[in-house]
Amino acid sequence: MGNVRKTLDLILVSVLPLFLLSCKKDNYSAPNIHLKGNIVYNGENINVSYNDVTFQLWEPGWGKLTPINVTVNQDGSYSALLFKGKYKLVFPPGAGPFIPEKDKNSGNDTIYIDLQTDMNLDINVTPYYLIKNSQFSFTSTDSTVHAKFKIQKIISDSLISQGVESVTLYISKTNWVDGRTSIASSTISGSSIVDTNNVSLSVRIPSMVPVQHYVFARIGLKITNIGKMIFSPIEEIDF
Amino acid sequence: MIFATSILFTNFWFSCTKDNLLNQNPTNILLNDQVWTDPSLAYSVLADLYDRVPEYQELQQYWNFADFDEAFPSNYGDYWRVQHQDYDYSSWNYWDYGYVRDINLFIQKCRESNLPHDDKSRFLAEARFLRANVYFELVKRMGGVPLLLDTMEYNFSGDASYLQHPRAKESEVYDFIINELDTAAQDLPKDPSIKSRATWGAALAMKCRAALYAGSIAKYGTTTPQVSLPGGEVGIPASLAGKYYRIALNSAEELIGSGEYGLYMKHPEDLSTNFADLFLDKNNNPEVIWAKDYKLKYRTTQFTVQNQPHSLTEEGAVSGFLNPSLNLVQSFEKLDNTFDTFATKDPATGKYILYDNINDIFKNRDARLSGTVILPGSQFKGRAVDIWAGYILPDGTIISGSSFGQSGILPGESNPSQVVGFDGPIDGLEHGTQTGFYIRKYLDPTPSAGQIGTGSDVWWIRYRYGEVLLNAAEASFELGILDSAAFFINQIRQRAGFTIPLTPAEITFDRIVHERKVELAFEGQELWDMKRWRLAHKVWNGENSDLTNQPGKSDAISTKMFGLWPYKIYDPGQPDNGKWVFKKVIPSVVTQPHRFRLGNYYSQIDPNILANNPKLIQNPNQ
After folding, report:
1. Any CB–CB contact under 8 A between A94 and chain B?
2. Per the CB < 8 Å rule, is B592 touching A180?
3. What is the pLDDT of residues B402-414, one digit of tens each?
């Protein structure tokens, strides 16, 4: 029996390290390469609504293909933490209030990325419209936020861009601003806009519970038959 | 020891070679030879196929009724349904080709069998009916799908690509459903007393609904051109709308004209109870065409157990899950054919309007309101419900409680009295109403139906004559035949207590949408209707909006669910003491407005399915 015990001990001792080794073999290291940047047009960020605009990263070479979805922030920036590798970046159709840029030679809008180290990548797109020179002000007498801005048409081809459906001024309690969070908004139809260089909107700030002395304002533009809206930057209004 | 072992061994040897052990028939598998020579066994296989009909909102999955704006889920574990903004793109998806294959196998083997002729032709027709139905479920959710009508076998050659099929066009799937039901109908019994198996009437009713859906997708799809795929897998050409509407109208008229079915009208003296009983009465019910039936002791549902009013629960366990919303309740018109919200405050003075009785505010409305919803001041199972939110003092102070029927001391009193209803509403308290309403449709007043052990055998009605009338009205309207549209819709409305028929000129799209909404509330139709009219993204647009004051408008925004709470005035000795006022409230649990995105119109196909078959294209806008 003594011999058996000794053999058993020997087996245990020799096998135990294997367990440790195999645990190490099963642990993969975390992704550690950053891919960051902005969605831009002529170097200017495209402002969008939160959680709405995404693009896909596809890594070829795997048995099954499923994309990694990357969401664009309200200010047009994005970031993703990935493994090293070759990726194809593509916007699904209708992903945002813009048309992705096509490669001049291939006509393809896929962007090929060879990610070996942290990379800054600004992605060029062509928006249908841009909201420019947005200025916000506040009049305390009537507790109203006023907005003045210019609508710049970028895509003129009427087959692609079917016009402005409406423009809206949103105000929200936090800096996540669009129709989902707004506590008040003011909309006008695209057809009622007389001068696109000089559009004004105003909306009264409703009473807020609990009381706060600031709101966040933003202008959103809805394009006819396009699902995603384009926005101005968000502005905090203190009063 | 060796001797004992050899004896044991010899015994085993003998018993192993005895015929019984190795030649026994399996007791848990039915072989093809057995099934296809015995009609009862073939019928049992068919019964299993019936059992697997896909459903989304139904009595057994009642929690799904709280997904949109018909009812609030008063259960802690379901609050998430009113706390998310977006619907996952994979919501409502379905891709059970295992079920399709089993139906195809049944059809193939049944055809090859030597069953008696009558059984064979009926079983085949029923299987084809079920196959048309599963493709209807697929196309409703996913758009065009691979149309597989034969069983596929793998030849183990190492190359499975011959088994990969592309998606058919959305219109092709609808065409298949319509043609398949036409064929099946010829061999299905023309017997309206058969309710849970396929009949001529059921095939016709399904064909009517399918054609109507296809017609509306063709017509209203033009308002959402981005919801389409270039190959036609999603989207139906607008030019086909008329053809489909015509098929829908013809099918409806054939069924209506046959006289086989009719509107349930056993209690004309009480139209609300009549409407409620339509869903409960299994004896000679002329309106039910195809139902999923239940039977006490064999299979029942917990729908009544989970949804009964809190104060009337039979075991004091669960209750009050589905609370109809004010959004739905205010949609029921006044009996003079006009729409109105409930008058809670005088618009001129801003003061609360006083009601002598708690149910006065709900008077003179569509009889279906009280037949669909348990209102404050009404009864269930012959006993009064106790729905009131508390006392209100002349200065507006509220005295209420935080548990059902709680007691409190009223000003000037020394003894406690009840200060809130035993049925709520109490904000944030689950299993009682938080909107001020309980659901009545499908709620079973039979004793013991509210007990967990017994349950209710009330059936789930998939197709009924009332819907066929609505289909006929809608198809007529879309084909420009307004007097037919009025003729059909007025029959439904007459049963709902309206005495002034609508004129043909009054039939508008808003009217069609509205009538369907109030007649078919809680019948699992809302999502599919909103999708085919392309209204879903307009009504559930994610905006943080107030409750609409235009309940008759088809595109009125309805992203959050509201409630209406009754308060009793406490002003002893004064003339207003004991009168009622109402407050429009939003349950604090409702934290996010619902947003239905363009990518939700057709559910996302699981990436694993796409990976297995590269010929499949993903649905758009996702």
Report:
1. yes
2. yes
3. 999 999 999 999 9
From chain B, the residues in CB contact with A64 under 8 A are 607-608, 611
In a domain, B415, yes or no: yes
Nearest to A179 among B542, B592, B598 (CB): B542
Residue A106 banded pLDDT, cuts 50, 70, 90: confident
Nearest to B611 among A65, A93, A181 (CB): A65
- Give me the residues of chain B with pLDDT under 50, please: none
Domain presence at residue B606? no
Domain with CATH 2.60.40.1120 in chain A: 33-127
At a CB cut-off of 8 Å and minimum separation 6, what does B323 contact? B71, B72, B73, B74, B433, B434, B435, B436, B437, B438, B439, B563
Burial class (CB in 10 A: 0-12, 13-18, 19+), B11: exposed
CA separation, residue B607 to residues A21, B27, B54, B102, B144 (Å)? 34, 39, 21, 24, 17
pLDDT digits (tens, 9 = 90+) for B543-576: 989 999 999 999 999 999 999 999 999 999 999 9
Tally of CB atoms within 10 A around A227 = 21
Instruction: State the ipTM, two decimals.
Output: 0.79
Give first-to-last CA distance, chain B, whole Å: 74
Nearest to B595 among A63, A94, A180 (CB): A180
Q: B543–A179: do the CB atoms touch at under 8 Å?
A: yes
CATH topology of domain A129-238: Immunoglobulin-like (2.60.40)
Query: Which residue of chain B has the CA closest to A53?
Result: B622
Average pLDDT over residues A60-81: 92
pLDDT for residue A104: 86
B15 touches chain A (CB under 8 A): no
Q: What is the pLDDT of residue A227?
A: 87
pLDDT digits (tens, 9 = 90+) for A74-90: 999 999 999 999 999 99
User: From the CA of A66, how many Å to the nearest CA of chain B?
Assistant: 6
Number of domains in chain B: 1
Domain that includes residue B394, residue range:
65-88+309-442+561-591
**Domain assignment of residue B185, yes or no:** no
- Give the integer Cα–Cα distance in Å for B437 and B435: 6
Cβ of A64 within 8 Å of Cβ of B608? The answer is yes
| Cβ within 8 Å, pair A180-B544 | yes
What is the fold, at CATH topology level, of the domain defined by A33-127?
Answer: Immunoglobulin-like (2.60.40)
Taking residue B287's Cβ as centre, other Cβ atoms within 10 Å add up to 22
Segments of chain A assigned to CATH 2.60.40.2060: 129-238
CB distance from A66 to chain B under 8 Å? yes
